[in-house]
Amino acid sequence: MEVYTTETEQVNAIKRFFATNGKYLAVGLFLGIGALVGWNYWQNHQTNRLHETAAEFDKLNQSLITDPAANIASVENFANQTNNIYGVMAEFELAKNAIEKNDLAQAEKSLLIASGKVKDENIQALANLRLSRVQLAEDKTDAALKTLEQVKGKSWQVIVEDIRGDALAKKGDLAGARAAYSKGLGYDGSPRVKDLIQMKLNDLSN
């Protein structure tokens, strides 16, 4: 790098630099401002779209409660076209509706879609826990156990071991079921859930 010994030389060097590169700097500045404006516009658009989706989901959810048969297709269409958290919640509602009709295959399908669509770890855990319960109700014990392996986070482990114990007991693995229930009791969790696990463990012991 050249070293300029006088203020005049430094000023003249700066002038020469801008004379040579000024148009490129102007274009760069323009592009930088344009990118910033574009980013802010995109962020605002995404926020507004999320609010619109939330309002649409709320409306559809209420319609599903009021008249499920007449509005189920609209909720399905919304779930298929929406990839954010409200699309996941729509799949949850579709699964709930299917369970109420004893259509466990459809409930499993909706929960599988929800699990694959969701990004948040806790909501994904919730989707997989519900999915494992449905699979267990369908006598798909191995599938339920595999689904449980996908549940992450220590706060969910009481429920995981509760369902695991149920699945192993259903398979006839009573020792495994006892181990799962006992492990579940070692985690922090809802007193109600832990009381239920203790009852199951007592039943196995008897």
TrEMBL record:
Pfam families: TPR_21
Ancillary SecYEG translocon subunit/Cell division coordinator CpoB TPR domain location: 15-205
GO molecular function: protein-containing complex binding
Main location per the UniProt record: membrane
InterPro entries noted in UniProt: SecYEG/CpoB_TPR, YfgM
Transmembrane annotation, as ranges: 24-42
GO cellular component: plasma membrane
Membrane topology of this protein: Single-pass membrane protein
Keywords for this protein: Cell membrane, Chaperone, Membrane, Transmembrane, Transmembrane helix
Localisation: Cell membrane; Membrane
UniProt-recorded name of the protein: Ancillary SecYEG translocon subunit/Cell division coordinator CpoB TPR domain-containing protein
UniProt organism field: Xenorhabdus szentirmaii DSM 16338
